[in-house]
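From the thread on structure requests for the teaching lab: each student submitted one protein with a one-line request. Submission from student K.M.:

"Model HNH nuclease domain-containing protein from Trametes cubensis, tokens only."
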Amino acid sequence: MTALPPATTAAEILKSSSPAAFGVYENFVLPAESAAIDACNTLYIIQARVVGYLLLYPPSEDARRALTTELASYKSSSNVHQRVYGLGAMYLRHFIFVFRRNRGRTPAPSDDSSPPSPDRAREEYMRQLQPVPRDHLSAKHAALVRDNFRCMLTGTVDMASVDENLTIRAPGETEDLTRCFRIFPDSLGNTETYGTGPKEYGTATVWSILERFGYENISAELGSTSKNNLHRLENVMTLSPRIHALFDKMLLWLETVDETNSTHGTLSAQDNTYKVVLARGRTHDAINVREKVHFVSHHPDLPVPNPRYLQIHATCCRIAHMSGAADYLDLVLRDIEESKVLAEDGTSADTLTFAIHRRLADPV
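Reply posted by the TA:
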């Protein structure tokens, strides 16, 4: 957990480009953090820092403007601190927590006793390929073809595909059963059409936050009434189980690599090239993952992951760790799994809230 930077430091980030954001940061967010520290209230500290870091390092300028407008509306409130904590709680539950998952799905290996020849196997596989996947299995198959039957971050060869003669493991390559990872989880589509229950409310809140942050196109692409949109290949990655688990726990994320134009001295993002960022002192060598990856589609009709989806995921991961929310969520999830009876004095109320939220978010 890292304290919010003082006003002098925040001024360097905000004052010239967004003086209004600096004003609410200095007048509302920093005092709310200070009051929470004085009260020794860890949850309030985290919630204030979630708001502060979102202001300082938002996924978009639209997001910063939306936060600034929301905070500025608290000016006449009799309890600004509580409003800041409440705002942080909403973004923690319906924005950051969306990307914290506890499980992945492992594809079943082939049980063919006599696999077909490599050429025939690939031909049959390609005939069944769906360029616009509509379910988990078709998304997995299409992503494997796009990713050359390998983990996108480690190059680990998919074991089932080797067994089925869909690819050949070269000397020196390792193999494992890969998993189909979704940047925005498929639980966001686990709702009833026209439903009005807690699941539907939580999912609608996620999409409304994205729209408020200037991502109306993402909401339209992934959050329409169709439950199948989250299977689109722009939202899907082929990962080894180990890397999948790190993504699930928000311990690994991808940040765009910038390059300097030698003629004009300006920075621009390299297309589909990312730094692999690790949390909590982990090293790339220790987990055998590359420091930089470049995504290439091995099929002309199958798109690689959308950079905007990865940017939002990265923002949530960074803020989760800077604010202390990542450690807090780990404790909450551990409490959920270890506690069989909630405390009678109400001290388990927040654990219960997150337990309910996780149960609603988890796919059936």
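TA comment: The two ends are 33 Å apart (CA to CA). Residues 324-364 form one domain.
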